[in-house]
Amino acid sequence: MRVSGVAYPPRLSQRCSADIDISGEQIKLCCDHQMVSQTSLEQLTLSDSVGNLPVRVSFPDGWVFVPDQNKDIDCLLQKKGRKSLRIRKVESNLWLIFVSIVFCIAMLFAGYRYGIPWFSHYAARMLPDGVPVFVGEKILDQLDEQFETSHIPVQQQQAIRKRVALFQQQLPPMPFPVQIEFRGSDIANAFALPGGKIVLLDPLVELAQSDQQLDGVILHEMGHIYHRHMMTRLVESSLTAVVVASLTGDTSGVVHQMIGAGVFVMNTGLSRDMERQADQFAKQAMLKIYHTSEPMAAMFELLQQQQMRHTPDWLSSHPNFSERIESMRQP
């Protein structure tokens, strides 16, 4: 089999019309009808075929042959284990490239939207108990830079803790013992941390007009603990951060990622689905303990009145108060 093209002598830029004769395992190079080089297929070197760029065939003595068309040396490419003409056509097919890009984007989106949350849900339950406790303590240490010492009377704090201890005896077993922490702040809020801690801010305690109203909020946070929402979100955020860090080459410890993600989540809130799930846990607990969920609806109304400005529903991680109030009052 003969293939036409051009050849370049060793260490020279001049070229000549040439052809190679492929006979079994022997390759002969002829330049201007004179044989200038000969070698075996094993000693022959072929450059990678990229797009429509010509393939360069290099001989051991320095001669280089470039065929007129890459398809003419397709048999050499296949013998040397390189990409065949068919594969090169597939790689240069713009439609297939477009479909591949769309497929990759769809897979990335599906992994982020469904794969990571699914994995995080189960991973949060597989972690040793010491990890959530440690992470929760470290998150609280960082958040304490924003908070002040609580001014709630010690007797009132003790009474709240006693009620929570009784709740734990009446409700499904918690993955961690619930501990109530009090902190001073200028906002009415409460949040659960990994490891079982619930932080109540003074304005929230002072806003509640009855023990039942405050208990509704506490039970809501216990719902987050029961479903391990915080740890699930932290694993999800940390996993995403680790993947991005790995791609950029900036890797660090997963536990440190969790602590940083925990502070972020505390400032941005959990997902709406998690908030609704915690609301339902609290509602069922209120019905079991107090035989009514009306105090929770009343507390939501008080919190709604406390909002200094309206936040659009699509910007809030919580379901809007109207939806939550209606949910509490449904039979």
UniProtKB/TrEMBL annotation:
Cofactor(s) named in the record: Zn(2+)
InterPro entries linked: DUF7092 (IPR055518), Mito/Outer_Membr_Metalloprot (IPR051156), Peptidase_M48 (IPR001915)
UniProt cross-references to CDD domains, sorted A to Z: M48C_Oma1_like
Chain ranges of the DUF7092 domain: 3-79
Location of the Peptidase M48 domain: 163-330
Transmembrane region(s): 92-112
Highest rank taxon of the organism: Bacteria
Cofactor: binding details: Binds 1 zinc ion per subunit.
Alphabetically ordered keywords of this record: Hydrolase, Membrane, Metal-binding, Metalloprotease, Protease, Transmembrane, Transmembrane helix, Zinc
Annotated PANTHER family: METALLOENDOPEPTIDASE OMA1, METALLOENDOPEPTIDASE OMA1, MITOCHONDRIAL
Family membership: Belongs to the peptidase M48 family.
Protein name per the record: M48 family metallopeptidase
